[in-house]
Amino acid sequence: MVLSLNRVLLSVHWVVLSLTRVLLSVHWVVLSLNRVLLSVHWMVLSLTRVLLSVHWMVLSLNRVLLSVHWVVLSLNRVLLSVHWVVLSLTRILLGSPTNGEQNSRTPEPAEPGARSSEPPSAEPPSPDPPSPDPPSPEPPSAEPLSPEPPSPEPPSPEPLPLSGRLLTPADNVGSLCPCDVIVDVCDMNCCCDRACVEEVALFTACSVLAVRGHQRLCSQKTASYSLVSAADGYSELKTSVQKETNDDVFCVQSQNRIDGFAHPAPALPTDRTFDSLFERFSSSEIRGQTSAAGPRAGPGYQYGDVMVTPGRPGQPGLLRLPAPGVTADCVDSSPAAFLRDQSSRCSRRVVLDRDCGGVPALSVDSYARVQLRAGRNADAALVPVEVSSVVLQSVEGTQTELQVPGEDHLHAVLLGPGLCANAVLKVGYVVKYSPSGEILNASVSLLLGFVRQSALPLQQEFHITFVQEDTDQATAHYSGNPGYIVGLPLVSGTRTAAGIVQSIDPRDTLSLLHSTGDQDCLQGPHQRSPILFGLDFVSGCTLRLKDASNCSLVLQSLLDVLRGDSYPQYVASFGNSPLEHPLDWVPIQRGFDAGGARSCSVPLSLHLEIEWTRYGSLGNPQARIVSVREVIETGPPGLAPPRSGGGGVLPISSSVSFVAVAAAAAPAYRATPTIDAQLPSGFFSPLL
Predict the structure, then answer these.
(1) Would you say 357 and 347 are in contact if contact means Cβ atoms under 8 Å apart?
(2) Residue 643 pLDDT > 50, yes or no?
(3) How far apart are CA 130 and CA 116, in angstroms?
(4) Do 331 and 342 contact (CB within 8 A), yes or no?
(5) How many CB atoms lie within 10 A of CB 339?
(6) What are the strands, taking DSSP E only, across 453-566?
(7) 641: alpha, beta or left? (left if phi > 0; alpha if psi -120 to 50)
(8) How many CA atoms lie within 13 A of 199 on its CB side?
(9) Comparing C-alpha atoms, which of 487, 526, 528, 486 is closest to residue 505?
(10) Does the pLDDT value for residue 192 go beyond 80?
(11) For the CA atoms of 338, 344, 348, 354, what is the dihedral angle to 10 degrees?
(12) Contacts of 104 (CB under 8 A, 6+ apart)
């Protein structure tokens, strides 16, 4: 039994030993594979080291090439410097004589065909021997010549500077000011502006702190500007000019431009120099065509030409239309331009006792006894200005048209101290012309009146309108194309069965009362101002009640004063809305009916609310009127009873306001694109 058990144990022991051997064999196989992988790893590392070595060699070679390149550039700069030094020495050696020798001699003018004894340039002479035919010039003597008597011929021009002597540039930085935009006017916060003397105390900061010359110069001046606060709180200007040095090796030592850092202004051609400049800068072909064709000259006027009158002998005159200048005073030298409708209102300061019959601006003859040239040529026919109507205005403001054969008895006359009769208050010209620009006839309408000393300065109005032949319509008046332009009057009209009708008189437009606060509403004359787009306006008058019994009469009179004589019904939505398109016109919404009111209420104010919007693209929006609403505020029913010792006083006002109703522009973005295409069935087969 013991032997059998021992054998079994030995068998198990051999089996275990066999398994151990197998495991050891597997272990050695794994170790062999590990050694192989380590060998491959070391081979990869060796290859990487080789590639890194090659990379560093390439980088080193690149650095060497860059160093060689910089060495070549440095040698090139040195050679350029040597070249410029050699050129400078050559110019000095081959230059003209010294200053003392040049000043001691007076250059003589060369005769025609003679050769100059000086070389024409600074280059060295040719080594070839000169020809024996022409006589060789004698060399100039170094000794000073004896002075000769002055010659009657004009002195020769100043010689050019010698080689190596550069002119001093006019680069005074103290006189340069880049922020000086307006000449002789102080520019805000421009400390270098010489026009700013008293305004410097109000400066907050200097827009330009320093003014320098060219950065390439070796030595340049710099003007510095700064502000400091004084004890009183105002600003004081501190200026200084310092010299700065440029450390660059290749800086510019000096420059030979006389005009410094600014280019010279080109000479503008004038009537005297145009022909010479044209011959100088134009080719022969252009000159031949121009001379063959000749200038185009027509007998009639062109747009913008001044209209000619006979004037004095040998000197043509101009048709002048007084207009306000810088102030509201009349400027009589303003000419009238052809095809330009003009309307002006100005004031004239006169002394009635002295100037009533002596100032031409108050006389009818200055505007009625006028003759115009039919064309701009001097031999054009004369067209007399005919008087179409004369209206006389009384002291109270009542106007009456005069039916008189002539205007001889309509001269300004002084009736008494401080009262001038038949003074010209308003002048209106109507000029009829042909399609070729020739004036066919002209007429003038005059408004004469009485002027008191208390009503000075005198207010005068002047108008001129152009009408083409075979048409009864004047030039169309637009206020934009297509949108309204701020500051131009609104275009208004009245609607009929045929469409919109617009008056040819530019004054018959939507307007407001333009009177002072002490102006009596029921006592004329009343001045009116056209409503200008985009400009709010407030005005008014005073209603003095002396009789409170007739309320309806006062109501209608006030409405006529506030609305005007010719109150339009429609306003153009655009500045150039055509008359044949009624849908482009906006009606005026009225909320007050005088006839439909049960009780009489006096209007205290008239307000026009005009709503407008921006139409079109954001890059070029156009102003468009969308609605016009009239708002009339009335008082209590009936009139206020008169006060003791005088009538009741009511202030009446008229106003206009422009309201922008356009919504704020919002950016619009396109939607994100999506792919809605369907792939065919089995497209990813056999993957899916």
Answers:
(1) no
(2) no
(3) 14
(4) no
(5) 15
(6) 458-468, 492-496, 499-501, 511-513, 528-530, 537-545
(7) beta
(8) 14
(9) 528
(10) yes
(11) 50
(12) 144, 145
The pair phi, psi for residue 291, each rounded to 5°, is: -70, -30
Amino acid 455: pLDDT: 78
Residues 6+ apart with CB under 8 A from 258: 167, 169, 170
Structure tokens at 312: 């004095």
* Res 383: pLDDT: 92
Taking the whole predicted model, whether its pTM rises above 0.90 is answered as: no
User: 3-state DSSP call for residue 261?
Assistant: coil
- 266 versus 334: the higher-pLDDT residue is 334
Contacts of 25 (CB under 8 A, 6+ apart): none
Q: Which pLDDT score is estimated for 636?
A: 73
Residues 302-308 have a mean pLDDT of 87
**Most confidently modeled range among 83-87, 159-163, 409-413:** 83-87
Read off the amino acid at residue 263: H
pLDDT at 241 over 60: yes
Residue 613's pLDDT band, with cuts at 50, 70 and 90, is very high
Predicted confidence (pLDDT) per residue in 549-597, tens digit: 577 788 888 888 888 877 888 999 998 888 888 889 999 998 777 665 5
Give the chain's length.
Answer: 688
Task: Enumerate the β-bridge partners of residue 251.
Answer: none
3-state secondary structure of 399: strand
C-alpha distance from residue 228 to each of 192, 197, 233, 613 (Å) = 15, 15, 10, 48
DSSP 655-676: EEEEEE-PPPP----PPPP---
Mean of the per-residue pLDDT values for the chain? 77
Listed residue (409, 413, 430, 429) closest to 421, CA to CA: 413
Residue 558: which residues within 8 A CB-CB, separation 6 or more?
A: 521, 522, 543, 602, 603, 652
By DSSP bridging, strand 528-530 and strand 511-513 are: antiparallel
Q: How far apart are CA 27 and CA 24, in angstroms?
A: 5
How far from 617 is each of 416, 583, 614, 620, 623, CA to CA, in Å?
64, 22, 9, 6, 11
- Please give the share of the chain, as a percent, with pLDDT higher than 70: 75
SS (H, E, C) 591-611: CCCCCCCCCCEEEEEEEEEEE
d(CA 319, CA 336): 6
